[in-house]
Amino acid sequence: MTEELKSTVASLGLGTYKRHILLCADQTEPKCAPKEATLKSWEFLKRRLKEVAGPKPLIYRTKANCLRVCTQGPIAVVYPEGVWYHSCTPEVLEQIIQEHLLNGRVVSAYAFATNPLNP
Q1: pTM of the entire structure?
Q2: How far apart are CA 99 and CA 39, in angstroms?
């Protein structure tokens, strides 16, 4: 990593995050779930992560156009564990936030694959 990139990462506080959740939402061509449902889930996720973050957020979020699992959406993936979740409605996302994102416990009822960054 270049010194410039290290400086940018440090200034954004990106090195302090414990987990990263990517949520399939607002797709160009919705296939896994209706666009309105994915946007509802995205807005919920943004709001809840702000509420639970406190002064030093530990969870990074990204809205992905499509995660290429075109069934039982919205789909989410949490890193560094690489756990993939289906059916990510606001209710399911609340479980993922409380159990996985904050406490490191996989929500097995909705997890369908695991591909960790560091196997």
Answers
A1: 0.84
A2: 22
Rounded-to-integer distance, Cα 57 and Cα 21, Å: 13
CA diameter of the chain: 43
C-beta contacts of 32-36 below 8 A and 24+ residues apart: 32/66, 32/69, 32/70, 32/71, 32/72, 32/73, 32/74, 32/75, 33/72, 33/73, 33/74
- For 39, phi then psi, to 5°, come to -65, -35
From CA 83, how far away is CA 18, in angstroms rounded? Answer: 14
Q: Where are the beta strands (DSSP E) in 46-90?
A: 59-64, 76-79, 83-85
Q: 114: left (phi > 0), else alpha (psi -120 to 50), else beta?
A: beta
Owner of token pair 């997890």: 111
Q: pLDDT tens digits for 31-65?
A: 889 999 999 999 999 999 999 877 666 899 999 99
Specify the amino acid at residue 105.
Answer: R
For the chain, the 3-state helix, strand and coil shares in percent, each to the nearest 5, are 40, 20, 40
Helix (H) or strand (E) holding 21: strand 19-24
